[in-house]
């Protein structure tokens, strides 16, 4: 489990315990947040806490878009699994693990525009 996944799980478990009296062992990855009693207001507060824990600004609708702990953790850790350029200009492609060319934002490996902002 990644450090982000651990932090997210810790925040979830502690908030559900404090707010609703849910025992840590009762928080399962596949159980919808609504079944724990999570309200709209509390989901917005929890999203803000998760944003602080992960160092990211998260959309207020995040917990409705990711209705289970598993979906939430997958969404928040997906960024860790994306391609990241290495210092040598080569990235690993997650789908096959083979190296590929690193490109600047808005540019394709062939040098054409991807429709993104000009570089």
TrEMBL record:
Alphabetized Gene3D superfamilies for the sequence: ACP-like
Matching InterPro entries: ACP-like_sf (IPR036736), PKS_PP-bd (IPR020806), PP-bd_ACP (IPR009081)
SMART domains assigned: PKS_PP
Ranges for region Disordered: 77-119
Record-annotated membrane-spanning stretches: none
Domain Carrier: 6-80
Keywords of the record: Phosphopantetheine, Phosphoprotein
Coiled coil keyword on record: no
Taxonomy, superkingdom: Bacteria
Keyword Phosphoprotein: yes
The protein, known as: Acyl carrier protein
The species this protein was found in: Streptomyces chilikensis
């Amino acid at each position: 489990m990644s450090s982000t996944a651990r932090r997210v799980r810790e925040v979830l478990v502690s908030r559900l315990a404090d707010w609703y009296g849910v025992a840590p062992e009762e928080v399962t990855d596949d159980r919808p947040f609504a079944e724990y009693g999570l309200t709209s207001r509390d989901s917005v507060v929890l999203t803000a806490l998760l944003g602080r824990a992960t160092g990211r600004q998260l959309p207020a609708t995040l917990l409705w878009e990711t209705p289970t702990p598993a979906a939430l953790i997958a969404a928040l850790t997906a960024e860790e699994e994306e391609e990241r350029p290495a210092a040598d200009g080569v990235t690993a492609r997650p789908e096959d693990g083979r190296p590929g060319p690193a490109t600047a934002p808005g540019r394709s490996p062939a040098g054409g525009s991807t429709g993104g902002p000009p570089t």
